[in-house]
UniProtKB/TrEMBL annotation:
Residue ranges of coiled coil: none
Chain intervals for the UniProt region annotation (Disordered): 381-415
Domain Peptidase S1: 1-145
Keyword DNA damage: no
Keywords per UniProt: Disulfide bond
Compositional bias ranges of the Acidic residues kind: 385-400
Protein name as annotated: Serine endopeptidase
Domain of life where this protein originates: Bacteria
């Protein structure tokens, strides 16, 4: 077996300005065996473009190459290595240490480092061998942290969007690090001015006019996960649809950084689904009866609910008899319904029964609904049903953009991937 553990880290004198590429774990690595192998990878380097005579690239080159399962690889390799190439596409001498990149879930990952291959590069069915970066995730984390760096692997996910009532985001965090405990970790949200964010599981505060930080209230040990709900609200944006960007943050540099999630969130005017039905109304006496159905779409349980009459009426709800303004009721669970009968009288000139549903937790206005009393002797109802569906998150199948440099098989001298003060590269030039 040749060139096993072909990887090295260099500590830089100063922090790099470039945005580092994300490092994979076993989940991302497993994608390789499920994906279409054709041109799954892009290899980049400064290596030979011609072997007779030797000609090295004068500009950065890339080549798109196929994934080859280890069981089909002509070299003796183990699970710390990746094979790729064929169809006259290959890396060559001088490319060693350069990146092997693949796209997964809409972003690029550093899957491998060029290690070794055939002496005659780019021949038909020539297969190269690359160090599998995911197999060294723990080694990279340990060595960077031991040398004074700060790196972790944090996966943040937006599981679902509930967009009825007060919009809410179901989120989760997983510490995918091998040894690092993460204390200051959470989510950053970017939204329009006027949006507020609350959560029971996270401590949220406004960072700027459009930015919010929601920190997890505890420590995440390696492999530990946390989930919660971020509830959004806005008085000024009622009836609008707002784009919200969300991504995890931590004190450590997140080597597992995924593409930011951007979702479109509707801020509804009504946070209850209300139906008022007048089942009987007497033209002469003003007596009326019926029922009110309320469905709680606020995203939380309501402790105290009240009805407020907005018309000239004296109504009694359920067994409470006549009541003033407002008429108080009890708890309404999240997603629960309340169906309340009413009887009473309405004023002589009243042509519609109008109620407002309020609760103290949401902070005032909930919804206004009414039922027309035409001649006070008809059965009439109105209903508002909101069936908002969450917007799809951005697709996972975006094509890889071509680099500005051009070329085919081959590349240039040894190339590294920077992580703050560290440079990740292959340790030997074998090709």
């Amino acid at each position: 077996m040749r060139s096993k553990n072909d990887i090295a880290l260099l500590k830089l004198d100063q922090e790099a300005d470039e945005q580092p590429i994300s490092l994979p774990d076993s989940e991302v690595r497993a994608y390789l065996d499920k994906a279409d192998p054709d041109k799954l990878f892009r290899a980049i380097g400064w290596g030979l473009t011609n072997q007779n005579p030797d000609v090295f690239a004068q500009e950065l080159r890339y080549v798109d190459i196929d994934y080859v399962e280890n069981s089909q690889c002509p070299w003796s390799v183990d699970d710390t290595q990746i094979c790729a190439g064929g169809q006259n596409k290959d890396t060559c001498r001088g490319d060693s240490g350069g990146p092997l990149i693949a796209q997964y879930k809409g972003q690029l990952w550093l899957m491998g480092l060029t290690s070794f291959g055939a002496s005659e590069c780019g021949q038909d069915e020539a297969i190269g061998v690359y160090t599998d970066v995911s197999a060294f995730k723990g080694w990279i984390e340990s060595n960077i942290n031991d040398a004074g760096g700060s790196i972790a692997f944090i996966d943040g996910d937006l599981a679902s969007v509930e967009s009825v009532g007060r919009p809410s985001l179901e989120v989760s965090l997983v510490n995918k690090s091998s040894e690092t405990n993460i204390n200051n970790v959470g989510f950053r949200l970017i939204a329009a001015a006027g949006v507020t964010v609350e959560s029971d599981e996270f401590t949220c505060h406004r960072e700027s006019v459009t930015s919010h930080l929601c920190s997890y209230n505890g420590t995440l040990a390696p492999s530990e996960a946390a989930a919660g709900t971020l509830v959004l609200a806005s008085d000024s944006l009622a009836g609008s649809v707002v784009d919200v960007s969300i991504f995890p943050f931590a004190d450590q540099y997140n080597a597992y950084k995924r593409k930011d999630k951007i979702v479109s969130v509707p801020f509804n005017v009504d946070i209850y689904d209300i139906k008022i039905s007048v089942t009987q109304s007497n033209l002469y006496t003003g007596e009326t009866s019926g029922w009110v159905r309320i469905y709680n779409k606020t995203g939380e349980a309501i402790d105290t609910l009240s009805f407020e009459n907005l018309t000239d009426s004296n109504l009694g709800f359920s067994d409470k008899g006549g009541c003033g303004t407002p008429c108080l009721f009890g708890e309404l669970p999240m997603g629960g319904q309340m169906k309340v009968p009413f009887t009473g009288t309405v004023g002589e000139d009243t042509s519609a029964l109008e109620l407002r549903i309020d609760d103290a937790q949401v902070g005032g206005l909930a919804s206004v609904q009414y039922a027309v009393l035409r001649d006070r002797f008809v059965i009439s109802s109105t209903e508002k049903d909101q069936e908002d569906q969450p917007e799809d998150v951005p697709g996972d199948d975006e094509s890889v953009e071509k680099e500005t440099s051009s070329g085919s098989s081959g590349g240039g001298g040894a190339l590294g991937i920077m992580f703050g003060l560290f440079l990740l590269l292959g340790s030997r030039v074998k090709k």
